[in-house]
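Notes, Module 5: Reading structure tokens.

Key idea: the token line is not a picture. It is a compressed description, and you learn to read it the same way you learned to read a sequence, by spotting repeated patterns. We will look at two proteins. The first is printed below with its tokens.
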Amino acid sequence: MASPKVSSFKLLHADRLRELAGCSGLCLTAILPPFVPGEKTRHSPAALLRDYAHQAEATLAGLGASKAHIAALLEPLERLASDPATAEGFHWSRVILRSPEVFEEFVLRQTTREGVTVAEWFDLLPLIAEADLPAEFYVLKLSKKQATLERAGLGLEPVRLPKTAQTLDEFLELDIPDHDRENRMIAGGSRQIRFGTGHERETQHAHLHDFYKHVDQNLSTFLRPKSGMVMLVGVQEDTALYRSASTYPNLVAASIERSPDDGIPENELLRRGLDLIRSATLQRNAAARQLARAQLAPARYSEVPDTIRELASQGRVARLYVAETPREPLWNDALIETLRHSGEAHAIPAGEPAGAVLRY
């Protein structure tokens, strides 16, 4: 057996998913849930890995694999179970993929059913939504006093927008349009007092709108080359006002509607943001499937499971839309064949009918 290619714990991208679809020869797929030491869980990662190894050993023996083949295939899992670092825990689910040539671990930023499978191919169906997610997105925290941007990957990292005021006070010191016929007077030295012809609340609302517009314009300049997705965090009044001022096309439709100053933990913010981005991604894919169904001739589109699997094996599926249900051999076969023949695969919400756009 060839020596396995070992890689570090990382994100799963669509290109790597396609490469993994090319693996064969008794492939093991193991999904571990998050684990934080001290929290109440059924099993530790080490115990789960040992249990998975025992289950896989029985399956492999039933498939006629030799003892030497089984030992070589399972050795990395057993080594991982004995590694002290495994007991340190992790906030994300992860998937372990093992074949005669591959041993890889990937973060899963979504909830999926834990367990282990052994088959001719990897069980990639539970992973397609993960592969569809962006490697990073941005969190824009809004309040009536300030707007701060953070880059979200597996953690949060502050980002300073160039030439951008971070607070409303900083913005009001800039040379802004005099849209509300605002007058200024000097009192007590250089301190400026503002008074307007409208109601004080309306004036404050107008200032905040202009501040958000200023942030959005600089955000667009900064992110447009990357097409980065942006998640808003703030109370409903602030997020709605920002949207009214925004022209940035990749704002996630839903917001995390709570004050950014209320002490929300980083992990919770990340999870909630990813849940909303994942939902938006699945809905986008479902809309694309529905559009294809409406616009294409019947000969170019199918929702018949056995037909799709057969056509995928012939290289005729250009795009496959399917729910990420684990342990569905028929749809996993269709997914593998689609990817092997250079097709695209996209996850749709559970309960939606799968569909395939055909090349011919």
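Here is the second protein, with the sequence above and the tokens below, as before.
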Amino acid sequence: MRFLILDTCYPAFLGAHYSVNPGLAGHSYDDQWRSLMDTFFGTADSYSHALGELGHEAHEIVANAAPLQLAWAREHGSRSRVPFRLLRERIVLEQTAALEPDVVYVQNMKFFSTRLLERLRRSGATIVGQIASEAPTASKVRAFDLVVTSFPHFVERFRALGVRSEYLRIGFDPRVLDRLEHAGAARDRHEAVFVGALNRTQHSSGNALLERAARRAPIEFWGYAAGGWPASSPIRSGYRGEAWGIEMYRVLYEARIALNRHIGVAEVYANNMRLHEATGVGTMLLTDEKENLADLFVPGREVVGYAGEDELVEKVVHYLEHDDERHAIAAAGQARTLREHTYRHRMAELLTILED
């Protein structure tokens, strides 16, 4: 099969990437695409790489990366002076026509208009949406032939709308380990770390718990949107800056403990990327307890769970003081991820769903 993977990146990441790579916006489409993929931001080209290993053609499009997409348009004969926001979907349609995919896999279901999705559907491709955040409107969901989600509780909700839906977990790309080794990453440079969205409002419950815990345990913070916390907050005093893509992996790799918390829409289920990013790089994961955590890892042996602030603080302190226990859990967690939770595993599962 031939896959076209439609993705987006956080605007803050795109801005930072082009800022630290002056002149990149003037390079060819291929050069810009490779530069973005090599950051390992989000899923980068993990899907196409794994699908390629499994014998299928695939290409990722970063639909909101204006310099990248405009470079493609220029190289394919388009010289329009219309603002990119008005050209964005037209370029995607042209890319789809050029690549002639059997499957269009949409990583950000909310980003694209229903009109675009309907036009893609009329091209004859199977339109697949992926979601691990709040669901779009019912009419948007119905624009897809299939929706895969790492939220187990979303599957039946989508099926109730008359849309085929299947459970597909998140994974890890082992190529990250080679990049970290070549970059000279070193273990145990940090104590406990949290990397992610530090909003005081959007993720208020989970971040408030981490903020309280950081008053009682050594926790450092990387990420974005930390400015909403007061100057007295340990999130502000423990803030070390943004960490995108491979730099995020490096922070996790160099930490003794990687902390995780889920967003509210995950409800009672463990599902986010940090589960596999932290274990994948071989760092002990300390994550909020969820009903299905044992379906992914063995709690207490491959990862460690916490229920509430006191237990989080207690376990941070305990595992910082007990290196042998921490190392054993980290090693077991990494072995489990590399054995069962890579993107090659996930793409094999996706192919089975599609062939079914």
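Summary for the second protein:
- The first strand starts at residue 2 and ends at 7.
- The chain has two domains: 2-171+343-355, 175-340.
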